[in-house]
């Protein structure tokens, strides 16, 4: 099955910024970007697996063509995924650096997928470990337990595993992927509640975020990372992140800060605190000098 759709945005802007947070590292088997800027993405929807190619056709338009049983469902949701439903009309930044970032990217959009488990599981895998290690774990697990992508996709692309597959992955396979028992239990526990989690998509983002934090192993950071992607929440702050407080501190004050000070700095920007973080990152104005040792990578495969 094949389906296609052209999406026209209000004003020119890079839809790539809206969909970029869905990419889990450069080697993500579910997300590829070709040299001409075309984006390939796979997903497992209620109607089935899908692979899609998204390319720019005009400064304010993109074209999506999708293959697989989930193709029609995908083209229905792709405008929201690319940020077409995002409404930043009440966002008027006054802090000088944030205002400069907004001038650079006045049409930056926040996308939403509407799929909770798909955003939650990789966020769990990314808990408390460096990004490179988490991305490798995601790549290993999806390559082994995902399914081949439908359509003429780039070599090696895979569709993410279903909830049933996630909850059946043996503990030793998580170990081989360098996912410790705590995160593995959380992944399996979330997959066991897949149906309930997807129903959260009908709730307001703040309610869903609180509900997610009631799950064993899902804290404030993981819930925020999930609603940012699944709901496009412009205000969800990743409290507990290793880099973001330092980046906010260096960028706005010239020195690193902790979570508490970061939240104080971002408070006047509510309800667009996450939008501010994305603007600073995407505009190139974010600062975080590399000083001292990086977060150590724990290799549990040798234990």
TrEMBL record:
Reactions it catalyzes: Hydrolysis of alkylated DNA, releasing 3-methyladenine, 3-methylguanine, 7-methylguanine and 7-methyladenine
CDD domains for this protein: ENDO3c
Keywords, in A-Z order: DNA damage, DNA repair
One cellular component (GO) term of this entry: protein-DNA complex
UniProt KW DNA-binding keyword: no
GO process terms (BP): base-excision repair, AP site formation; DNA alkylation repair
Enzyme Commission number(s) of this protein: 3.2.2.21
A GO MF label: DNA-3-methyladenine glycosylase activity
Protein name: DNA-3-methyladenine glycosylase II
Species the sequence originates in: Mycobacterium spongiae
């Amino acid at each position: 099955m094949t389906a296609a759709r052209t999406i026209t945005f209000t004003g020119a802007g890079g839809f790539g910024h809206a969909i970029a947070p869905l990419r889990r590292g450069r080697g993500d088997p579910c997300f590829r970007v070709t040299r001409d800027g075309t984006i390939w993405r796979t997903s497992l929807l209620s109607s089935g697996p899908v692979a899609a190619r998204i390319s720019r056709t005009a400064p304010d338009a993109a074209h999506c063509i999708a293959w697989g049983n989930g193709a029609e469902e995908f083209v229905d949701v792709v405008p929201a995924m690319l940020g077409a439903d995002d409404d930043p009309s009440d966002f008027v930044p006054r802090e000088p650096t944030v205002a400069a970032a907004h001038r650079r990217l006045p049409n930056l959009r926040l996308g939403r997928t509407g799929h909770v488990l798909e955003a939650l599981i990789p966020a769990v895998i990314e808990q408390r470990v460096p990004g490179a290690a988490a991305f490798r774990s995601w790549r290993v697990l999806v390559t082994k337990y995902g399914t081949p992508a439908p359509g003429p996709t780039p070599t090696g692309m895979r569709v993410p595993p279903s909830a049933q597959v996630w909850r059946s992955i043996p503990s030793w396979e998580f170990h081989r992927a360098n996912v410790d028992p705590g995160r593995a239990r959380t992944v399996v526990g979330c997959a066991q509640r897949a149906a309930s989690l997807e129903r959260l998509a009908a709730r307001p983002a703040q309610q869903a975020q609180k509900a997610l934090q009631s799950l064993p192993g899902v804290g404030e950071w993981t819930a925020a990372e999930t609603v940012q992607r699944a709901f496009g929440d412009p205000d969800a702050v990743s409290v507990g992140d290793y880099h973001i407080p330092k980046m906010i501190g260096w960028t706005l004050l010239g020195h690193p800060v902790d979570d508490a000070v970061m939240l104080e700095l971002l408070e006047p920007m509510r309800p667009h605190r996450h939008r501010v973080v994305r603007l600073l990152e995407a505009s190139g104005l974010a600062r975080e000098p590399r000083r001292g040792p990086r977060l150590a990578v724990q290799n549990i495969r040798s234990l």
